Amino acid sequence: MVFISTNGIADFKGAAPKGSVYVEFDVPANSLLQGGKDGWFKMIGPDAGKSQQFLLNKKGGEHLPAIKNIEILDKN
Predict the structure, then answer these.
(1) What is the predicted pLDDT for the residue at 60?
(2) Euclidean distance between CA atoms 59 and 57, whole angstroms
(3) What is the pLDDT of residues 14-53, one digit of tens each?
(4) Phi-psi region at 64: left, alpha or beta (left = phi > 0; alpha = psi -120 to 50)
(5) β-strand 68-75 against 40-43: which pairing, if any?
(6) Contacts by residues 24-29 (CB-CB < 8 Å, ≥ 24 positions apart)
(7) Which of 2, 4, 20, 38 is the most exposed place for a label (fewest CB within 10 A)?
(8) Which pLDDT score, from 0 to 100, does residue 71 have?
(9) How far apart, in whole angstroms, are the C-alpha atoms of residue 45 and residue 53?
(10) How far is the C-alpha of 32 from the C-alpha of 40, rounded, in Å?
């Protein structure tokens, strides 16, 4: 599972453990599932729970979709 914030680097600074890397990238929006807070999402793999897979399939998304235009912007 990959956690994603659309709120920018401020979320990274406040939540990421030491050794984390902040990157920005493009990914299909229908492959993201809502996370716990506004602006937070997650990408799931094929071993995710049935309820998570149901939600992904309902949106027409795919497991761990191809990521494009990845850029490393900061390290913690």
Answers:
(1) 97
(2) 5
(3) 778 888 888 999 999 999 999 988 999 999 999 999 999 9
(4) left
(5) unpaired
(6) 24/69, 24/70, 24/71, 24/73, 25/67, 25/68, 25/69, 25/70, 25/71, 26/67, 26/68, 26/69, 27/65, 27/66, 27/67, 27/68, 28/61, 28/62, 28/65
(7) 38
(8) 96
(9) 9
(10) 9
Strand partners, 34: 41
Total residues found in the chain within this entry: 76
Centre a 10 Å sphere on the Cβ of residue 61 and count the other Cβ atoms it contains: 19
Global confidence as pTM: 0.80
The Cα angle at residue 60 between residues 55 and 62, in degrees rounded to 5: 85
- Which amino acid type is present at position 26? D
Q: Is the pLDDT of residue 65 over 90?
A: yes
